[in-house]
Amino acid sequence: MTAKKSINYQKLQAELDELLAALQAGDMDIDEATNAYVRGQEIVDELSAYLKSAENKVTKLTKDFS
Amino acid sequence: MPPSNLPGQGIDTLTLTVSEFVGLLNQTLEFAYPRVSIVGELSNFRVSKNRWVYFDLKDELASLKCFGTVYMLPGPLEDGLLLQVAGAPRLHPLYGFSINVQTIQPVGEGSLKRAASLLQAKLLAEGLFASERKRSLPYPPRKVGLITSAQSAAYADFIKILGKRWGGVAVDLADVQVQGEAAIGQLVRAIEYFNQQAKPPEVLVITRGGGNADDLAAFNSEQVTRAVAASRVPTLVAIGHEIDLSLAEMAADQRASTPSNAAELLTPDKLREQHQLQLLQTQLALSLQQLIKAQLQKLQNIYATMTETLHNKIIQARQELIAQQQLLQALAPQAILSRGYAIVRSAGQIVRSGKQLKTGQKLAVQLSDATVSAQVEDIQLQ
Q1: Above pLDDT 90, what percent of chain B?
Q2: What's the DSSP call for residue A14?
Q3: Are B242 and B143 found together in one domain?
Q4: What pLDDT sits at residue B80?
Q5: Do residue A30 and residue B294 have CB atoms under 8 angstroms apart?
Q6: Domain CATH for B36
Q7: Which of B16, B183, B246, B274 has the largest count of CB atoms under 10 Å?
Q8: Which one is predicted more confidently, A54 or B129?
Q9: At residue B82, does pLDDT exceed 60?
Q10: Where in B216-266 does DSSP place strands (E)?
């Protein structure tokens, strides 16, 4: 069984890295920073859930290659 | 003249034309030996018109002529190689006996290595192994085309390690033979199949466990190597535990040392990722805290500056007030009177000039501590 929700792990990971870098740069105003933090937390939750629940799905093709 | 082929006559009594004999012999050969497989040393190898292949297959005591097309060659060949040739024995009406070759495989470790080395040189010259052709693989991929034998330990290892490290990957398995005569065709067809899909996988993993040189021959074949190099889908080829690289591995975008290693190269370790996510989460919170702290500090600085400015203004204003008070005090009429001056009034009006006065006029003279009544006796204007 695959994860219920198909996510692009790489894309979300990249977004998280960007948010953290922006926060660490320290030139955001408080509203922006709070929004970035909330979004970062959402991504962390989503990626954690994916890592805990996602399983691989193997499908054997019926095609005969002989 | 027709042959005297009467009922009851034995073959030894038949009289045949040459063509008839050749035809009869070929029929017999086709019936008795539809396909033979012969191992021997290659000699007199030559290619005619880039299409026809002629060579002799020999051992210490005998030599056989063989004939075929370039399409069934496993790669470049040279005299001295030990080959396994499969084909049909035929007697050509003009050129005599030969084996019509269907497949050729180098056999024996020495020959396999030599054939692979010849092929490697050829493909290298064509640029199939060039590093600039290598593409990076998706990390982690969401869809993998796996080409291997479903019965193999390689398959089990790859799936096991993939599941241990990562989740959410869709693996489409093309179950093919990875050794033996059929392996080359099946591997090539599986690679082409995935490439022709409307939504092909993000990466092709072509794998098998280790084996001897004969077992791995398909991965040193020109067909498989070319199919790997031509794949539009990036390729990862993993042949287990071999010191010598196979040509298919060299043509792949990336190679792995074992099927398990292939799974490791494709995916991060989810336990490690979870740990890193926790670190990231902590960093996120710390960054926000630091940012808030920095903002608070900035506000405190502004407040301090404002307070100081206000304080300075008050001090300045106070000093100005004192100065004005002093000036005011200095200018106050009472103070002037104290210094000996007097204010002269006549009928309540301040007298500023002698011209306002007349002899006998009554005056009120205000001193600092008293008002004195007086009368003008004499006026001397200056």
Answers
A1: 66
A2: H
A3: yes
A4: 87
A5: no
A6: 2.40.50.140
A7: B246
A8: B129
A9: yes
A10: 235-239, 254-256
Q: What confidence score (pLDDT) does residue B240 get?
A: 83
**Count of C-beta atoms within a 10 Å radius of residue B200:** 17
Q: In B132-215, which residue ranges form alpha helices assigned H by DSSP?
A: 153-165, 183-196
Q: What angle do CA B255, B176, B69 make, to 5 degrees?
A: 90
Give the domain CATH number at B214.
Answer: 3.40.50.261
Are the beta carbons of B167 and A34 separated by less than 8 Å?
Answer: no
Q: Does B189 touch chain A (CB under 8 A)?
A: yes
Residue B27, chain A, CB below 8 Å: the answer is no
| Tens digit of each residue's pLDDT (9 = 90 or more) over B325-358 | 999 888 888 888 888 999 999 999 999 999 989 9
The two structure tokens encoding residue B374 = 């007086």
Beta bridge partners of B204: B145, B235
pTM of the model: 0.65
Range of the domain at B71: 11-106
The beta-carbon contacts of B212-215 under 8 Å, at least 24 apart in sequence, are: B212/B109, B213/B109, B213/B112, B213/B113, B214/B107, B214/B109, B214/B112, B214/B179, B215/B179
When scoring B139, B206, B287 by the number of chain A Cβ atoms within 10 A, the one with the most, hence best to mutate, is B287
> Which of left, alpha, beta for B85 (phi over 0: left; psi -120 to 50: alpha)?
beta
Residue B215, CA distances (Å) to B56, B105, B196, B235 in order: 26, 12, 28, 21
The pLDDT value recorded for residue B137 is 93
* DSSP helix/strand/coil, B101: strand
Is there a contact between A20 and B288 if contact means CB atoms under 8 Å apart?
no
**Residue B229 confidence class, pLDDT cut points 50, 70, 90:** very high
Contact between B118 and B77 (Cβ < 8 Å): yes
For residue B73, count other CB atoms closer than 10 A to its CB.
18
Could you tell me if B72 and B133 lie in one domain?
A: no
> What CA–CA distance (Å, rounded) separates B226 from B250?
11
In a domain, B21, yes or no: yes
Q: Would you say residue B6 has pLDDT above 50?
A: no
In degrees and rounded to multiples of 5, residue B21 shows phi and psi of -65, -45
Cβ separation B173–A60 shorter than 8 A = yes
Please check whether residue B167 lies inside any domain of the structure: yes
Q: Which of B262, B152, B255 is nearest to B209 (CA)?
A: B152
C-alpha B81/C-alpha B112 separation (Å) is 8
